[in-house]
Amino acid sequence: MAGIGIVGAGISGLTLALRLQQLGVEATLYSEQDPASLRSGRLPNTVSRMGHTLERELGSEHYRDPGCLMGSAELSIKGDPPLEFLARIAEPFHAVDFRLLLPAYLDDFTGRGGEVVVTGAPADAARVDRWSRRHELMVVTAGRRSVAELFPRDPARSPFDRPQRVLTAGLYGGLDLGPMFSYNVSPGCGEILRMPMMTRHGVVSGVLVEAVPGGPLEPLSRMPAAEVAGGLAGLLAEHAPRLAERVDGGFELLGEDDLLQGAITPVVREAVAELSGGRIALAVGDAWITNDPLTGQGANLGSACAWIAADAIAAGGPYDAAFGHATAERMWEAAAPVTGWTNAFLRPPAAHVVALLLAATTRQDVADLVLGLFANPAYAWAVISSPEEVARIIDGGGPSPYF
């Protein structure tokens, strides 16, 4: 047996592979693409990663240019008057194009002796089953066909059956806020997020438009690349005026491959599949849970669950169905608050959440706490789901036990 088989060279698969390598567990990574193909591909996402992703502990810190480390953020909710505040965070958020980061992680893994099999095509259930004959356990972190075939939707944990936002993500020049995150809400229409990202063009602005389906932001998701910058500039003026103030005459999409348009249906899938060869497959990352990127937790949750899975694997087998379900429950302890919080953000805010945001406009401690929620999803859900916790914060209660 050749240890653990990992399907997918996204952030979850690579984090798992690197962590198992650290723990002395043999692993083989099955990647659809080689590093050169990853570097030359289309923009896969716009991701801001938090301190709890633990890349430092993996010995795999890359592209930490000061220009893409965000120690502050501004939030603006359109209204008359708008609701706005500026907040700070102790450990900066970090944004880097995954076309740079994932190949760097792959190089780290192979450079330390790890085995990578480049498959050249998406994995399906039959291939996962065939590969499992070489391994004690298969962990699936990516692959559209294999995910759909192996891990059915969990209806009890998946309240949505269609996309709640239509997405347009792109890399732009001519929009400079420095190392600051900008979160702009246009009630009933959607959200516009801007972050400084390290890319193959240097540090530029990554902009994600989260459009409510059928609303005025949605047409951007259907525009050809040549028209997107002009369309976005017009939408910023109407729906994110603070961001529009920073647009200059050179505002442009940097390239056709620097644009991603589409939609995501939030879903939680069953985490364990029994393969015909007698072994199991465990789903981690996007293969298990796909959250809307509105709260910026997808890659962060994938990394967190990869660490949990790695520690469970290193503790030893047998890697049977009981092992898979026990590991999934440990991962769900981390994933449940992220999923609850993200799903709540896709709906109109509750009255106590509005009260918290209003308090943040006049109190810096509350503003900083709100920003800190993005780095502490367990506490974020404890706040968002609890009028009592919000009242405690607003009343000036002592430091939360979560911080």
Give a nutshell description of this structure.
β1, α1 (11-22) and β2 form a beta-alpha-beta unit. The protein contains 14 helices and 17 strands.
Describe the structure.
The protein is an alpha/beta fold and 403 residues long. The chain has helices at 11-22, 35-40, 55-58, 98-111, 125-131, 144-150, 225-239, 241-244, 298-314, 321-345, 351-360, 364-372, 377-384, 387-394; strands at residues 4-7, 27-31, 48-49, 69-77, 83-95, 115-118, 137-140, 166-175, 180-186, 190-199, 202-211, 247-253, 259-263, 267-268, 272-274, 280-283, 289-290. The strands form three sheets. Strands 3, 4, 5, 8, 9, 10, 11, 12 and 13 form a nine-stranded mixed β-sheet that branches. A hairpin with a 3-residue loop joins strand 9 and strand 10 (190-199). The radius of gyration is 21 Å and the shape is globular. Residues 143-246 form the Styrene monooxygenase StyA putative substrate binding domain. This is Styrene monooxygenase StyA putative substrate binding domain-containing protein. Pfam families: Smoa_sbd. It comes from Nonomuraea angiospora.
Labels describing this entry:
9-stranded mixed beta sheet; 6-stranded mixed beta sheet; 403 residues; single chain; alpha/beta
